[in-house]
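Please predict the structure of the following assembly.
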Amino acid sequence: AQTVTQSQPEMSVQEAETVTLSCTYDTSESDYYLFWYKQPPSRQMILVIRQEAYKQQNATENRFSVNFQKAAKSFSLKISDSQLGDAAMYFCAYRSAYRDDKIIFGKGTRLHILP
Amino acid sequence: AAGVIQSPRHLIKEKRETATLKCYPIPRHDTVYWYQQGPGQDPQFLISFYEKMQSDKGSIPDRFSAQQFSDYHSELNMSSLELGDSALYFCASLGRGEKLPGHNEQFFGPGTRLTVL
């Protein structure tokens, strides 16, 4: 069974600074998707970034980028120029590419932005 | 663009009552997933449907049942409600057609917040 582990329950970063959220996962599959979701106080689940395992290039979306290390099964999220609106719970997540499978979430990291 | 619609957005029930949550997927999406997120928890997969047939099942209590209808909307029926059923229930939809925007990706609805008193 696949698992997703986020070892940082909470993190804080100064506004305008850069922060990295860690995530590791375990799977025996070779093709899969990895995601970072943001859940603000409204509790809406917002997709931040997506990475296909077969792609070696790290995904980037504006101020958000990932460091995908397939061999190490590591998938960290870097947020540059942190803004107050980035304060939220961030979930790392996994989905198999072999079937339209369920998403498996990590426990989440709560990110605080300090003004 | 149309998104996933869930109703109601908030629901308050007493213990042992019944609740029905509804999910309307993005047009032309044929797959629906249900997730349960307890307070301070990560979302947990409950059940999924593809073309009106159950496709996968997670840790869904026997007191819960669900189905997908001919118009692809889905309903999650919860009976004999317990205090521990208080949670945010997400529905997500997925479309397989390659011409669909974001094909093969799950889109989440806003969730239904269920409170059991």
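Chain A has a mean pLDDT of 95. Chain A touches chain B through 16 residues (CB under 8 Å).
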